[in-house]
Design brief:
This protein is α/β, with parallel strands linked by helices and about 475 residues long. The chain has a domain at about 380-465: PGBD-like superfamily/PGBD (Muramoyl-pentapeptide Carboxypeptidase, domain 1, Orthogonal Bundle), CATH 1.10.101.10. About 25% of the residues lie in helices and about 25% in strands.
């Protein structure tokens, strides 16, 4: 059964993704539960407990521990443990119990700024991973990348912790440091990143006009979906349209998600109400369709840029543009997160967050753990996939290890041909290092010390920011110029 649905006034809908420096929870689609006073109707979503449910056994265990355990037990801790135990049996990384402190942090997730390292975390195949670092954040500058697995935080293994608990460990006061041990695909040894926390501003929309072949192409980058994102998007889109744009690029690469309401308001500017932009399906198989209010299509073509760091809310946007709007997606397959969570408040300020449904694309596809395939697949140049160089002593001739390999890949990406990329430091590699050192005004020893390693990483980051090296963006512009 499928039905169209308008949100009851009692419910605010939001979608949160990742942990922004230990800030968000997810990646989740999050439906925030609000029950009106004295409302016990089904529409009001008051919590109903089955009178036939026998909780006597739970109470008996609680009383036994409280009265007979050889140490005094904090009753609140005991109750929290009981709830956590029930939720953990669901074997769902997105269904969790949040105590009062974690719940307060969760509800502050969309402030205009926060203290952290600026990265989103999620769960994939029982591993806690980086979904995407925020652009220009301490996490990105340190070299964290999508799909990095978090092994430990400040020396403590994260296995067995849920994403909320991990987020609490990552967050911290500006100026303090957090140390993450990371396992990266294709790298045999774990890597350690000591990252200084900072104030992370939530400026989520950036735009400009790109003049190509005598035409104005609008470009809007959305880094995440916060409270003001849709307002900023609308304002900046109108400014672009006043400049007579003949096409629009929406860039959600590395966008881990945010508020569903922001996505809905943005889609109201772009997608007509002929087709749903989103569907949800509950455990009974009942589907609900969501529609925009827009009646007339834009007079120009639109493309969206996606990659494996595009998750949840950004996947809803991308799928709506592709399937409901008929617009092209360019880039790489997205992250793949397709379930809906609902946070239900307890009387003491804590929350139980449960997965309550799937979300489906306009055509009814479930992209969970699959991602969205782009209309046109374009991979970025190799320089975008270089690894940071972690050394405790200088790299020099005849050494063989992974750090030499990383340096060779960076050198090649910068145009200093090392001749090989297998991790053996030969004469050709040394010559390439000398050439780089001379161009940077460094002492041309041919060895890679910490100063040279940092210079290599800074230079490759600058190259990644160069729009001319962004093959996905160039492809989008060419597509719109057809």
């Amino acid at each position: 059964m499928t039905k169209k649905w308008m949100l009851p006034a009692a419910i605010t809908v939001s979608l949160t993704v990742g942990v922004a420096g230990g800030m968000y929870v997810g990646p989740d689609i999050f439906l925030k539960w609000k029950t009106p006073k004295n409302d016990t109707s089904e529409e009001g979503h008051s919590l109903q407990i089955d009178s036939k449910t026998d909780l006597t056994k739970v109470k008996q265990a609680y009383d036994l521990i409280r009265q007979y355990y050889f140490k005094e037990v904090d009753e609140d801790v005991l109750m929290s443990g009981a709830i956590q135990g029930m939720v953990s049996t669901l074997n769902d990384p997105y269904s969790v119990y949040m105590n009062k402190d974690v719940s307060a942090q969760f509800n502050q997730a969309l402030d205009s700024s926060f203290d952290g390292i600026g990265t989103e975390i999620g769960v994939e195949n029982d591993k806690v991973i980086i979904v995407a670092p925020y652009k220009n954040s301490p996490a990105e500058k340190a070299g964290l990348k999508p799909k990095d697995e978090i092994i430990s935080i400040d020396g403590k293994i994260v296995k067995g912790l849920n994403v909320q608990e991990i987020s609490m460990k990552i967050r911290g006061k500006k100026g303090t440091k957090v140390t993450l041990e990371i396992k990266r695909s294709g790298v045999s040894k774990t890597q350690t990143f000591a990252i200084k926390r900072d104030k992370i501003p939530v400026e989520t929309v950036m735009s400009e006009v790109k003049e190509e072949s005598g035409k104005n192409i609008g470009y809007i980058e959305i880094s995440s979906f916060s409270k003001d994102t849709s307002k900023d998007f609308e304002k900046q889109l109108k400014a672009l349209e006043k400049k007579d744009i003949e096409g629009l690029i929406i860039d959600v690469r590395g966008n881990p998600g945010g508020l569903l309401s922001s996505v809905e308001e943005i889609l109201n500017e772009l997608i007509t109400n002929d087709n749903p932009y989103l569907q949800t399906e509950n455990r009974s198989g009942e589907q609900t369709e969501y529609y925009t209010k827009l009646k007339e299509k834009k007079p120009y073509n639109i493309v969206a840029l996606i990659d494996r760091g595009s998750a949840s809310a950004s996947e809803i946007l991308a799928a709506a543009l592709q399937e409901a709007g008929g617009y092209a997606l360019i880039g790489e397959k997205s992250y793949g997160k397709g379930t809906v969570q609902q946070a239900i408040p307890m009387n003491d300020g804590s929350d139980v967050k449960l997965t309550v449904s799937k979300w489906l694309t306009p055509k009814g596809n479930w992209i969970h753990q699959k991602g969205i395939e782009p209309t046109i697949e374009i991979k970025q140049p190799d320089l975008f996939w270089t690894q940071p160089i972690n050394i405790d002593k200088s790299l020099k001739r005849d050494m063989t290890n992974e750090q030499v390999k990383h340096a060779q890949e960076i050198l090649k990406g910068l145009g200093y041909e090392p001749g090989r990329e297998d991790g053996y430091y030969d004469l050709r590699t040394e010559i390439a290092v000398r050439a780089f050192q001379k161009s940077e005004g460094l002492k041309a020893t041919g060895n890679i010390n910490l100063k040279t390693a940092n210079a290599l990483e800074d230079e490759i980051k600058d190259e990644m920011k160069d729009k001319d090296n962004d093959m996905q963006l160039r492809a989008a512009i060419r597509y719109l110029l057809k």
